[in-house]
Structures are given as C-alpha cells and as structure tokens.
Amino acid sequence: MKLITCNIWCGIKYEQLEAFLKKQAFDTDIFCFQEVRNGKYHNPNSVSEEIAELFSQLQTILPEFKGYFTEMVPGVGIASFVRNNISVDKIESTQILSAQDLSDLKMPNGDSYYPRMLQSVYLKDKNLTIQNFHGVPGNLKKDTPTRNIQTDNLLKIINSNNDSQILVGDFNLDINTEAVTRLGERMNNLIKGSGFKATRNANYNQFETLPFADYIFTTPEIEVQEFLVLPDEVSDHLPLSLKFNL
C-alpha cells in the first residue's frame, strides 16, 4: 500500500497541489492532509489566498477516493482520503488538546490556538489504523508543558489500540525534542535516520532554522518498502510518502 501525508496550507498553492494530487492518485491508496478548510473560518485574519471550500475541491480532484473530515474549529481541520476499493470500518475523532489546555498559549496576534484533534481511520479486514494529526504550533517547535500533554494523550490512544498503526502529520516538533523521542520509543520514526534534511521548504520563513515539523511513525510489524520526503512544493511543507506491507 502507499500513503501520502502533507500539511496543504489551506490550499494557498492550489494549482501545484491539484497537479500533484492528480499525478499521485494513480498509485496512492490513502492521503492524509492537515490544514484543510471546509467552509467559513471563524478567524477574520485568515489569509485571503486560502481556499474556503478546499475539502469539497479535494473530493473533486480525487473522485476515486472517499474523504473524511475532522473539524478542529468551524471551517478548518484535518482530512483523510481512502481509495474506494478499501473498506473503512469506522472513523474516530478524539480531542488531544482542549481549549483549556491551550489557554496560556497564544498566537503572535494574541489569539488562542484552536483545539487539537486526532483522526483515526480504521481499515476493515486489514487490522490497520491510520492516525492523522496536526500538533500545536509555536515556541520554536521545542518541548513545552502543553506538548507534554499532547504526547501523553497521543500515546494513550496508540497504546490502547491493538491494530497495526501508522501515525502521520504535521506535529510542529523539532526533530530533537523529547516529544519526538517518546513517540519514537513506541513506534518507528521514519524521519529519524532517513537522511532527509527537512520536511519544510523555502515557502516557510523559518525554513533554515526549523526544517522539521512532519513525521510518519509506524508500529514495528509494518514492513516499510519505501519512505520518501517528496520535493514537490505544494505547500510550505513537503509531502511524505510511504510504501508499506502489513
């Protein structure tokens, strides 16, 4: 099977994203996306280049896939698209960080960050769960008490699931954080030791000092055939691609 994950920046580089997805859809089974707009966003300061109906447009781009959207706040969230010939048993959305957990953490403009959700896609007859996540930003991607709570709650869910699991997403974490180490003690961190130097690109204004944010973790029984950080600039993040066997 093949999976691609990417923070798609709310569609700001839509033309490049559309071309990339149409090309990759030929042999990809599962797409996991972060920063997906799905209607009117509550933040009046949101960037005008964002595509408000991005989730609907992704469904049009990917007609051979079924899309599943998990809302973080009205108008924005995370989404997974699963090829139609793969049966999905259920989708679960679990809060990892609540508004109260984030009450002391502010954006540069003073606004609060929105709650963080984990989207779990349970594949029927494959004993496999895809976990799609977008972690809280800020604080130079370093360890913080809030990120400790985030990691604790992620590990609770991972450890309570007896399926094979693939945890993907934009974790907003530096590669040398304790949070990444803890996740890597439970699952295989495919970025660590891969030789890839970044999961961000020059569209991100701190690319040179904060090159990592995105990860794929797999439980040990998953056989990795190929792991790549793709060079396509469809966002301010680079897509991650995983080919694997169960």
Account of the 3D structure:
This protein is of the alpha+beta class and 246 residues long. The protein has 4 helices and 12 strands, in the order E-H-E-H-E-E-E-E-E-H-E-H-E-E-E-E. The chain has a 6-stranded mixed β-sheet, with helices on one face. Strands 5-6-7-8-10-9 form a 6-stranded mixed β-sheet. Strand 3 and strand 4 form a beta hairpin. Helix 3 runs parallel beside helix 4. The longest helix is centred in the middle third of the chain and has 15 residues. It starts with a strand and ends with a strand. The model has no long low-confidence stretch (mean pLDDT 95).
Observed structural traits:
246 residues, alpha+beta, six-stranded mixed beta sheet, 12 strands
List the helices and strands and how they pair.
Blueprint: E1 2-7, H1 14-24, E2 30-37, H2 54-61, E3 65-73, E4 76-83, E5 88-97, E6 116-123, E7 128-134, H3 145-159, E8 164-170, H4 178-186, E9 188-189, E10 214-218, E11 223-229, E12 240-245
Parallel strand pairs: 1-2, 7-8
Antiparallel strand pairs: 1-12, 2-4, 3-4, 5-6, 6-7, 8-10, 9-10, 11-12
> Helix and strand succession?
EHEHEEEEEHEHEEEE
Count of discrete alpha- or pi-helical segments spanning 4 or more residues = 4
**Low-confidence regions:** none
Mean pLDDT comes to 95
Share in β-strands: 25-35%
Q: What is the CA-based Rg, rounded? A: 17 Å
Largest sheet: 6 strands, mixed
Query: What's the end-to-end separation, in Å?
Result: 9 Å
The amount of helix comes to 10-25%
Kindly report the spatial arrangement of strands forming the biggest sheet: 3-4-2-1-12-11
Output the structural class: alpha+beta
Number of strands: 12
Using the alpha-carbon principal axes, give the shape. globular
